[in-house]
Amino acid sequence: MLLLDRSDVIRVLDMKDCIQAVEKAFLELAQGTAFMPLRNHITTPYGLALYMPAFLQEMGALVCKVVTSYPDNPAKHGMPTILGKVLLQDPRTGDVVCIMDGEYLTAVRTGAASGVATEYLARRDKGQVAGIFGAGVQAKAQLWAVATVRELSLAYVYDVVARAAADFAAEMQSKLGIKVSTASSPDQVLEAADIICTATTSRTPIFDGSRVRAGAHLNCVGSHTPDARELDSAIIKRSRVIADSYEACLREAGDIIIPLQKGEIDRSHLAAELGEVISGRKQSRTGSKEITLFKSNGLAIQDAAAAKLVYDRAVAAGIGREITL
After folding, report:
1. Domains observed in the chain
2. Rounded CA gap, 28 and 66, in Å?
3. Is residue 228 a contact partner of residue 200, using CB atoms and an 8 Å limit?
4. What is the pLDDT of residues 120-154, one digit of tens each?
5. Distance of alpha carbon 55 from alpha carbon 52, whole angstroms
6. Mind telling me the catalytic residues?
7. Which residues of 45-200 form beta strands (DSSP E)?
8. Which residues contact 112 (CB under 8 A, 6 or more apart)?
9. Mean pLDDT across the stretch 158-172?
10. Model pTM?
């Protein structure tokens, strides 16, 4: 069995190739060759444990990711709040052939899904402006992914912690080679942004959806519980909403569930799953003035595709540590 730590995963996983792998995973989901139960969870006295299995038949990827969210970890144990490990199995034998760190992989694969959505749903004008809400690890992956599939002239970042936004701007400007500026308010982002990514921990709407520009595309990844939402009903109602998964959106996404419960939208407002758009079964953008919105809950198929990519590259490069159990 191969063990891959964080540095190993970082060494072999890049955004461009991860976007391609995740696109194939969504296509498998649409074609019926992906098998993915919804994530199971266990609540302990100390935190939440999530178990995310998936099998991609055509890609030969059989994976289970274990993710925990333990709020007291930083103060009590000097460990991150969120921890993750990915187990990759040989689909022919069922044997676990690799265990890898899942923190960096999760960030990149989540960004990659937004990259796929941006490729299929956002306008194709050159020199567009990106607007990022949040300044954490996932927000960085979102901007990285968008900049991979679209030529950006500028990016704005807004965070309630001004220092975090400033650090984000400096790091991502250096990484991507595009100008990244901090915004003093959500409205400053909305006035300029053609492509918007929300990657915050907020449980309530973070901006006024009526102020989003016509023709914008949104990738929304921050909220994934039924009682929390980053987006208000105004932007949901104005948008052509594309789901990563109908089932996940209807069971986990407060951004969708809350306006449904209030009668502000109905089930038909979910226009398509991303895989249906990729396969051509459903239409993506219907015009240059339409607002498109990708609601991402994070699916195990993304982990499976990214983990298989990491494993194959690690084996080819001869990195990681082999152990026998």
Report:
1. 2-106+301-322 (3.30.1780.10), 122-298 (3.40.50.720)
2. 22
3. no
4. 999 999 999 999 999 999 999 999 999 999 999 99
5. 11
6. 65
7. 48-56, 61-69, 82-89, 96-101, 128-133, 152-158, 180-182, 195-198
8. 15, 18, 19, 21, 22, 145, 302, 306
9. 97
10. 0.94
